[in-house]
Amino acid sequence: NSFESNLTNTFPKSNTIFFSICQLYLKKTSKTNMIFEEKRYVMILGIGIDTIEIARVLRACERSSHFVERTFTTKEMAQFAEHKVRKASDFAAKEAVAKAFRTGFYQCEPREIEVLRGELEEPYVRLYGKAKKIAKRLGITQIHISITNTKNEVTAFVVATDEKEAALQPLYDE
Predict the structure, then answer these.
(1) CA distances (Å), 70 to each of 2, 14, 77, in order?
(2) I need a surface site. Which of 18, 65, 102, 109 has the fewest CB within 10 A?
């Protein structure tokens, strides 16, 4: 395909760590009387991963209300009552997002990256302030996130993309 070959020629091999093309084929069944196939290209603009000890984050939260207030939003704190481990998972997720931005927390605050859960407890990210500005500057319109934990550690993995289709949860308000 000429589109794919143009991209291959445009981006040197040294940039392939942050460059990928994903193809998604969407099909509707004949039950809806609509059968079609659509090909979309998605650019991966950043990848972030973070693993953290659960006990370390819980100790930091117990020792300092200042840490909690400057790290977590009101909506995030409301979710902690039912799930204490979520403090660690949300913190790891915030770190992973900041790494996907390639800035760490040097250019944005942890509170500006909000990690919430949907109806099925699936994590999603909302951005505010400087984090929102960084995402817009980089062309990031979606952040895909996966969080897993063991008894002692939590790992969050993030892929930041430029998907044009609307997400189930918007990344930021316009």
Answers:
(1) 49, 37, 11
(2) 65
